[in-house]
Amino acid sequence: MEATGVLPFVRGVDLSGNDFKGGYFPENVKAMTSLRWLKLNRTGLCYLPEELAALQKLEHLSVSHNNLTTLHGELSSLPSLRAIVARANSLKNSGVPDDIFKLDDLSVLDLSHNQLTECPRELENAKNMLVLNLGHNRQLPAMTALQTLHLRNTQRTQSNLPTSLEGLSNLADVDLSCNDLTRVPECLYTLPSLRRLNLSSNQITELSLCIDQWVHVETLNLSRNQLTSLPSAICKLTKLKKLYLNSNKLDFDGLPSGIGKLASLEEFMAANNNLELVPESLCRCPKLRKLVLNKNRLVTLPEAIHFLTEIEVLDVRENPNLVMPPKPADRAAEWYNIDFSLQNQLRLAGASPATVAAAAAGSGPKDPLARKMRLRRRKDSAHDDQAKQVLKGMSDVAQEKNKKQEESVDTRAPGGKVRRWDQGLEKPRLDYSEFFTEDVGQLPGLTIWQIENFVPVLVEEAFHGKFYEADCYIVLKTFLDDSGSLNWEIYYWIGGEATLDKKACSAIHAVNLRNYLGAECRTVREEMGDESEEFLQVFDNDISYIEGGTASGFYTVEDTHYVTRMYRVYGKKNIKLEPVPLKGASLDPRFVFLLDRGLDIYVWRGAQATLSSTTKARLFAEKINKNERKGKAEITLLVQGQEPPEFWEVLGGEPSEIKKHVPDDFWPPQPKLYKVGLGLGYLELPQINYKLSVEHKKRPKVELMPGMRLLQSLLDTRCVYILDCWSDVFIWLGRKSPRLVRAAALKLGQELCAMLHRPRHAAVSRSLEGTEAQVFKAKFKNWDDVLTVDYTRNAEAVLQGPGLSGKVKRDAEKKDQMKADLTALFLPRQPPMALAEAEQLMEEWNEDLDGMEGFVLEGKKFARLPEEEFGHFYTQDCYVFLCRYWVPVEYEEEEKKDEEEEKTEGKGEAAAAEVEEKQPEEDFQCIVYFWQGREASNMGWLTFTFSLQKKFESLFPGKLEVVRMTQQQENPKFLSHFKRKFIIHRGKRKVAQGALQPSLYQIRTNGSALCTRCIQINTDSSFLNSEFCFILKVPFESEDNQGIVYAWVGRASDPDEAKLAEDILNTMFDASYSKQVINEGEEPENFFWVGIGAQKPYDDDAEYMKHTRLFRCSNEKGYFAVTEKCSDFCQDDLADDDIMLLDNGQEVYMWVGTQTSQVEIKLSLKACQVYIQHMRSKEHERPRRLRLVRKGNEQHAFTRCFHAWSTFRKALA
């Protein structure tokens, strides 16, 4: 390949990630004599290449993560060298040359993560050294006790900071202010004791999701940066006391709605930003003392600002449009500006207008006398406010009238003449953002566009005044008139050799620019060689003409030339294409290959290739035909052994045998994305680290960032990129990229392809934005031609005006409106499942069960559980059940039958029998259920994960699922395997079996027969209930008779439940006990009442079971929301940090945990009142009363709604 001549102009290049092992290094680097920076990270270098000696202007060299054992070589001969980064190599003290410390300009040296045992010699000669990193070496002295690190105004950047500070476990105060950081350094996330962090006066544009690792940070200073938004993860900094965000670019959408979770926040400063409003949740920070919001664009503040009782400083100066919210005069303000009226909450929940109207009308009888008294009090208290409102209304009317008069005067010209008819027309709103940026014409100066391919492309300032003879230009001059207002002059310049399309487009886009700016000036036509004096003065009479220009935008009719290429198809979910040599030996029977001849596309399927790969390759070929060949190509599907002669002719002949030659672990090199940079006389080629450029859905670890595929969003329409895929080099040209950058990129792509070791079939291709080839798109994640549809939009949103943006606009409106979500309170109660339906579901789940093995934790290991103990659980034990389920194989069934018939045809009975043996059997899946009693410790789970789970995973790779459950929160499918015989005993398994105390069990069904349990409760007759069945076990001390077991059947109990109690009695309890079924009122005095501890009054009905509902109230989502628990709830569902609402049909209990905030208590109280009001209109015959219950003080009417109520369990370690 001929030299392109661009290498001497390259100022920087990033060759990281290439393979330079074995002494191979591109010689072309010697031609980059103007190189200032060079990155050779992760290239496998064992020694420094000799070519570095020619780079006399090199200032920054990075050779990290290689196999270097020495730095001896050419470094000391590079006089301009300022920074050497050689971290993560195998350097020893003998490998660090002494003469590098004599370099006059050396200021940064990173030798961390090597094998140094002492500080390098001659280090004292480095007079200008600013940064020296010797961390993570063998026996170097460390500063592990360091508590304060201040590096203010020390020219810190991402490149001269250590990547990890893990060893500084005591570091609590870090100051990196007044530096040049563009993001928060990753090393700060690993500091476990960080309390104070100052990152002010930097260039930080965004915060990572990893900030939630700063769990101990109390002061965070991010002032004077470029932040536009804060991540929601900042709401997890529960110990944060001071947050400074002054002089950024934050607006209302940039503040997370859940900022009210910062319960310890005392100072919040966000002066000099773009805030129009602040989230209402900010006013729910109970300790907020200082709130500084001056120099913003505030319109108003939330009314909840009046509830900040601890506020000392409220600074809202220099907000000219600010109107302070009125201080509420009644108790309604206590509820944080949320309308808790029943009709409003029904409307928000989506109820019909009739229902809302009925709720408003049916709120109860009205007392006319009370209404008069209420109106009189309101009139007396608000008399002054009404007077002010009247005065304000009169002034508003007067101002509106004056404004209309002024407008009517303006419609007449100065001489009293009526304005022309066209001056009163309103210009249509057109979108020119595709051609012109938002800041065009907003600053005095000169802006020039060149017409290229029908579109105006911005011309760099260095080329102003230089016009190509075959091009057309648009010139915009922006200046301030005498009144200080912006004014414009617009010219369009026509070259002497310009084509018709360029002339027309320059005139059209000049008018578009005038409309975009709203300018009143005319667009002036200027022709080459006949320019006006005004136009020449714009360039100080210094313009020049250059021969040539860009090609015409019109299509020329010519035969398209297609390059023949062959690709190997691999990948499962998203296929990828790897170019291979154009010969028969490249074929492999395990893969699908795609041969592209332009208007003939062959999809070749190997004998062992999968059907899904063939289908996806065919679909890929269809996309190529549709998008690149205009549907003219013919696609042919070939199977190994049935190829036509023309196929082998393209590949140079048919091979004697198609062998397996692709390694099983083959994976192509990671693509490298370069961004071409062009300056005044230099070129740069930095790599884009797209692993860090893309926001991760799940927060990654700082030490190991996961590999991610490229995203289309990384490509900027104003730039040019080179995508290096080893066997393919793509040059992507943005539509708004400058012409000179495009020309330089084409030459750099050729040089890049030639200088690195590549296969012979490697090719360089050019892609213009909007016309990319399918092979190029396949390199990116989720880049296809499918039209994106917003499925969350409803019919109302779709019918909005064309100027609205659907979901985006609705989300913005909801952010203002959504302060409470009480929808769950208005939904009907979940109906109980019928017994027949539950039994059918139970039968289906048990039909799929192929086998079940049980294990129980004994000591520190799991022992096999005897089958006779299946269904018996103890509250202090942990159990593991391995269930194997049969899964029918249905996919590809028909195709396999056809294939087997073809193979067996004509081969006799032996071949048919062999094929039958190869028929796939049914598949299976294994689920491991881990059950933990409510009194058991977490050691059982840890023991399982490190012992039994590992063993199961090795036995059933890829077919294992682990489900962790706690007592009374079991999976319904798991419960179905015990067929309603699920008994929970108190204590530990072997200890409890020897106890001689009587024990009482209650059988109860919650919402469905699947959720039936027999749980041991306190042995007390006051817990009996006539609508349930109980089992009383009374042991004897006699050796002949171990005791007696009673099944007590309540007079109002369900017959099916009574039969179940008798069944449990006979099958689940020890045969050595006497067994007796007794009905309520027929209890024997001698054993039953003595064993249960005397006869006491008990409930004779369980009517509450038909009405019981449990709701959870929380503001963890950033706003107050109510959600309902399922009907199978238990005591452990009562969350200690939330409010729970329990409705038993007569009372609504508001249960308050010990860690609940005052805000949640107040809002939950209003939610209770709304719910009671709603139920009064629905069930007027059952009026509810509101009762407050605190944790630990629950009444019997509350506890009986929970099966087997006991003491609250302690937090597990």
Automatic annotation (TrEMBL):
Residue numbers spanned by region Disordered: 376-418, 894-918
Record InterPro entries: ADF-H/Gelsolin-like_dom_sf, Gelsolin-like_dom, Gelsolin-like_dom_sf, Leu-rich_rpt, Leu-rich_rpt_typical-subtyp, LRR_dom_sf, LRR_R13L4/SHOC2-like, Villin/Gelsolin
Protein location: Cell junction, Focal adhesion; Cytoplasm, Cytoskeleton, Microtubule organizing center, Centrosome; Nucleus
Entries under Pfam families matching the protein: Gelsolin, LRR_1, LRR_14, LRR_8
UniProt keyword annotations, A-Z: Actin-binding, Activator, Cell junction, Cytoplasm, Cytoskeleton, Leucine-rich repeat, Nucleus, Repeat, Transcription, Transcription regulation
CDD domains recorded: gelsolin_like (cd11280), gelsolin_S1_like (cd11290), gelsolin_S3_like (cd11292), gelsolin_S5_like (cd11288), gelsolin_S6_like (cd11291)
Residue ranges occupied by any Gelsolin-like domain in the UniProt entry: 454-536, 574-648, 704-776, 1125-1198
Biased composition annotated in UniProt, kind: Basic and acidic residues: 398-410
Residue span(s) of domain Disease resistance R13L4/SHOC-2-like LRR: 188-269
Any one Gene Ontology cellular component term annotated for this protein: nucleus
UniProt-recorded Gene Ontology molecular function terms: actin filament binding; phosphatidylinositol-4,5-bisphosphate binding
Coiled coil: none
Domain of life: Eukaryota
Biased composition (Acidic residues): 894-903
Any one GO biological process: actin polymerization or depolymerization
Function of the protein: Is a regulator of actin polymerization, required for proper myofibril organization and regulation of the length of sarcomeric thin filaments. It also plays a role in the assembly of cardiomyocyte cell adhesion complexes. Regulates cytoskeletal rearrangements involved in cytokinesis and cell migration, by inhibiting Rac1-dependent paxillin phosphorylation. May play a role as coactivator in transcriptional activation by hormone-activated nuclear receptors (NR) and acts in cooperation with NCOA2 and CARM1. Involved in estrogen hormone signaling.
Name this polypeptide is given: Protein flightless-1 homolog
Species name: Propithecus coquereli (Coquerel's sifaka)
Origin organism lineage: Eukaryota, Metazoa, Chordata, Craniata, Vertebrata
